[in-house]
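> Could you send the Crp/Fnr family transcriptional regulator prediction when you get a chance?

Sure thing. Input:
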Amino acid sequence: MNDLRTITPKRDIARELARKYSTMTHDELDILEGILEPVKYGKGEMILSEGEVCRGISYIEKGLVRQFYNKNGKEVTEHLGVDHTIFMCIESLFKEEPTRLQVEALEATLVYILPKSKLEAAAIRNVNIQMLYRKILEESLIQSQVHADLMRFETAPNKYKRLCELSPQVVLRAPLTYIASYLQMTPETLSRIRSGVLL
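Output:
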């Protein structure tokens, strides 16, 4: 799981993204492959720190990341991402302003970055890359809405049950304290739910 000695060829990542978000010709895959930038992070390494500007959309090929912010001296987990998912700090990305969010690798992680400037330049010239860009943004917005609705409308046990359904790998791999923070509950409450006391 954490062996990142072999980097997946960029062509394979371009195909993965095309399968998931758009259809592409051979030439379009060439363009997408040329945009992708692989970056490895060690466990505990910061991918993005508060005050930096988010410059691109990141696709996790292997690994686990936590997106969080500080509030009243406490870290609040906003997103947990695993293999074959996307993450970005959307406000910083589009406003090109320093972010208040931080992103940390919770495992050895291999990320392929789609720099916004390169992606937008390609999207202007190519309708299928434009479609891929749009679909990625749509997915990100829907995920945010799903999480917001989960926090607003569901009971603590149902929040955890839904997370198990939506992101089973997150539940298996992320530390309990971060899962609890993401679900806006205490670690003690989450422990009771996991042991079946509140189910």
